[in-house]
Amino acid sequence: QVTSFLGVAVRSLCTSSPHEHPEHGRLVYKGNLAKAVLGVRFFSYSTSIFNLFMMPYIMLKTGIGFESLFIQAAFYGLIGFFTFVTPVTLHVLTKGYVIRLYYKDEMDTYTAITYNAILAEKATVFHQKDVKIPDITKMFTTFYAKTKSMLVNPTLFPNPQDYNHLMGYDKSLYFNLEEEEKEADER
């Protein structure tokens, strides 16, 4: 590939597609809210840390104090509650948001990239057979990979067949009536 940049020829030699990852495989999904999720969580963490360091200083400098030990404990408990609950709640709600999803054809495995609690990228590798679709649609879960809930937007898959294969929709529906009766009898 040759690109001209202000009259200078620049040659780029790349052996793999920009959507290929040597370890994870082919990129089949990219979440459009990855930067927003990272930004909101970072902002929440930073304000909580700021709050932890500044509240004692503000309390000492302003002279705000309560004579009752119970009222002091309740006040600091309330501030501490909001300092810790907001980041934890955001983590719980967004921990399954898939930033990128890769697929390896030869092994039929997926690698989902999510953010962990310290905002680093975390890779979860699973097979298509490990994908379970929840019986009841849940707000922050599209599917379960083994036991971990994952959230993807089906419309962001460039190739709808990739989504269909991930969810198992491309498998033929085959009902074995004898197996169904056997399972019903066992129940």
From TrEMBL:
InterPro entries registered for this protein in UniProt: TMEM70, TMEM70/TMEM186/TMEM223
GO CC, one annotated term: mitochondrial membrane
Annotated TM spans: 36-58, 70-93
GO biological-process terms attached to the record: mitochondrial proton-transporting ATP synthase complex assembly
Domain of life the protein comes from: Eukaryota
Pfam family, one: TMEM70
Alphabetized UniProt keyword annotations: Membrane, Transmembrane, Transmembrane helix
Family, per entry: Belongs to the TMEM70 family.
Protein name (record): TMM70 protein
Taxonomic lineage of the native organism: Eukaryota, Metazoa, Chordata, Craniata, Vertebrata
